[in-house]
Amino acid sequence: MNLPGPETFAANARAALTDETLRGALRRATDTFAERRGAALAGVPDWEELREQARAVKAHTLARLDHYLEQFTRNAEAAGVHVHWAADAEQACRIVGALARQHGAKRLVKSKSMATEEIHLNAALARDGAEPVETDLGEWIIQLAGETPSHIIVPAIHKTREAIGALFVEKLGIPPSSAPAVLAAHARERLRRHFAEADLGVSGVNFGVAETGTILVLENEGNARMTTTLPRVHVAVMGIEKLVPRFADLEVFLRLLPRSGTGQHLTSYQSLFTGPDGGREGPRELHVVLLDNGRAAMLSDELLRPTLGCIRCGACLNACPVYREIGGHAYGSVYPGPIGAILTPQLSGMERAGTLPFASSLCGACKDVCPVKIDIPTILLELRQRAVEGTRESPAARGGTVERLAWRVWSLCVTGPRRYALAARLARLGERLPFLARLAPPLAAWSTTRERPRLAARPFRATFRRPS
Amino acid sequence: MKRRVALFVTCLADQLWPAVGHATVAVLERAGCTVEFDARQTCCAQPAFNSGYQEEAKRVARHFVEVFEGCEAIVAPSGSCTAMVHRFPQLFREEPAWAERAERVAARTHELASFLVRELGLGDLGARFPARLAWHDACHGLRELGLKREPRQLLAHVRGLELVEFAAAESCCGFGGTFSVKFPELSSAMLDSKLASLAEQRVTHLSSLDGSCLMQLAGRLARQGAPVKTVHLAEILAAR
Amino acid sequence: MSSARETILARIRAGLAGAGVPALPPVQSGAPLAVAELPARFQLLLERVGARLVRVADLREAAAELARLCAAGGVRALVASDAPELAPLLESLPAALVRHGPEAPREALFACDLGLSCAQWGIAETGTLVLESAEERHRLASLLPPHHVALLPRSRLLGTLGEALARVRPGAGAPPSRTITFITGPSRTADIELELVVGVHGPKHLTVFLLDSA
Questions:
Q1: What confidence category does residue C2 fall into, taking pLDDT thresholds of 50, 70 and 90?
Q2: Which residue of A has its CA nearest to C12?
């Protein structure tokens, strides 16, 4: 299925805006999340202190990431974990594929992990005949439908219950239903068979603790526990930025993430793994794949580095007035919404994703809700500059010579009083021209839905009669 | 001793809504200030800066700094322009000399409601504006300048004015500068979501401290033929 | 593998070269709760997340409650963790009720109606149970069956998340637990139109026996 990419954001957005079902679903979802988050915060008087603590912990960790990765590896290995390092997506997929082959694993199950989406793990394993079954309900729905997730926390938010019901009828042969409880019961029954037979389980990692070599996986459904308990091998894919220095640091993040993401005090389950269970009642082997895939390169710019502090809570998506209208697919990338607009260009490059930083009105709602205080608007502005002016790695991806010239002319006009006055006069003359809209495409774009503002007959400066 | 204030009228108000400029002057004078207008002023550089054209933005920002750096207080009837001036130090972070000059100017630049309430400690300006009015919390004013309470405090003293809150008051109107013309359908969708929430309140007027938002809102309301009039905070406060 | 490690570390070091390191702030913990408040707070939060609390004076009463629960729920088979404290509870169950331990064959475990375990700690501020694999093999009993019953001694109630993390921290004295599971209520999902469905892959029912005598 040909999926839209970030390069076609404008067209993707236009298409999404015509999908009334999608928009209704998004409106309901984002309103609900905002409400729940608000209610959850009401009971936390020190919320701002928590955010600052989390920001500071991440900032420190990222500034010493090499040290903490080495510490994590040492401690994890001491506990019996096999730690693998993957410089890029392909390498990560090869590692997981090799582990599957090594263990004769043909039946794989997987819990929700943005990192594994990012590296297209399922497709890579499918080529080996070992495509994992997604076990998170939303991810399983998406997998059955052959789609990609549209939200970080609720991947199938864009689908109505009727659509999901119809999908289950088609793919699973169930009697028709659109009741979520019934559909979830069918999912439980089907996926239990997969869990029971699975040879290898793949999970993501929400937090890795350098001090102890522990990995933490949080969830509500119990599918991650099943995935990481029943098979004989557990492979956890962790972005290198997911580390925290101390075991005790988990507290602040556990206070922030569930409330920010779903409005819960805590999700139903947190599993903390320090080494493999050794077959007592869990997997014999635990493998952690440390994933770089562009993250290390993001460390060098101190302005952009805070992007790596993201804990994937999804709060920015729920707060974003743009996301609310178009959903995740329009961004054409694994990470949508405000975080996607800053992360994707840095991971995938400006040539591909250079439009995304412009796909924002800079309202700042995301910055307000980010639990680790990422200043998304400032980073968006920084990336817009990179897009226009280019960097060593990628020459200017956007802003052709016409646009550049226009801004240059504009800057000259507004820095010289005579030029400014001339420009103002020309603008008034131009306003009377019937083909004005054709000469100035931005005005045409405006006028499709809005009445045009009119220039005042005389500007303020001509009518102000005080001496200065 | 009257406080001396330099008016930064903003390029949009200058060219599109001179009445807002005059209202701002009237309000500041009523608040006991002497208002000066330096005709060399033009723009705060926001359009170029938001579009990623930093060199062009810097050129315009330097002009702003040169025009206003002798002033004790600079007041603008715009949250976004004020927020932009506050970003000048970020803009000049690689030029320490300019950054320092910009920092000084930024520290003295205030949005109108902020200046009246926080700097002058005022509430009642003797205004009268009969209306059933909703307040739009313009994004930059709300989130970068922290202005939530201050405009409402001023409006509470306006005789005849019934202030009505609506659910989407803090939602972005969809303007975002060039965003509104780069992604016009998206901009309009955001606008319509906001106006749908407003429609439930049946107001006569919609106000804000940002003219660009009002331009976006007014443009759509007019196209819809809705009876809601847009009015800038300065115009309300200047009304008798 | 080592070359990828070297590559990544080199990239990181190159990226961080010359940059300052902001200080790591000291750990901040949530305000502690008064011990006397703990049972009531724990119950409040537990019930808020859809679990049930039963206060039992001692193991004898716990056994009676369990038997009642099994009878009411038509439980034909259960899986118990290997915690020795559970032995008296199991003894008083009807002989017809099949009991499995965590080492039983998977098919048997999947067919169990109820799972029984202890909990090493309870967190009052969130209504959370904390289970440590070094103390008991809890993973399957607390996950597979649709009903999980956990025996928690009252003395093991803690106020905050921070206190619990301090107690279970691998390496802090006691033998490290390879798996620590925090359980807050039954399993749930809202993946379909954000409508809450309780009981997905984990249990649908969670009952905590709060043991006063321990």
A1: low
A2: A296
Encode pLDDT of C123-139 as tens digits: 999 999 999 999 999 99
The verdict on domain B3-117 having CATH code 3.40.50 is: yes
Selection from A367, A259, A357 nearest residue A313 by Cα: A259
* Cα torsion A186, A188, A192, A195: sign: positive
Whether C and B touch, i.e. at least 3 CB pairs below 8 A, reads as: no
Residue A398 confidence (pLDDT): 58
Q: Is the ipTM of this complex over 0.90?
A: yes
As a whole number of angstroms, the distance between CA A220 and CA A206 comes to 13
What residue of A is the nearest CA neighbor of B63?
A: A415
CATH of domain B123-238: 3.40.50
**How many residues make up chain C in this entry?**
214
Question: How does residue A43 score in pLDDT terms, banded at 50, 70 and 90?
Answer: confident
CATH topology of domain A44-293: Rossmann fold (3.40.50)
pLDDT tens-digit readout, A72-123: 999 999 999 999 999 999 999 999 999 999 999 999 999 999 999 999 999 9
Minimal C-alpha gap between B166 and chain A (Å): 14
* pTM for the model: 0.95
The single-letter DSSP state of residue B142 is I
Backbone angles phi, psi at C36, to 5 degrees: -60, -30
The set of residues, in sequence order, having a beta carbon less than 8 Å from that of A102 and lying 6+ positions away, is: none
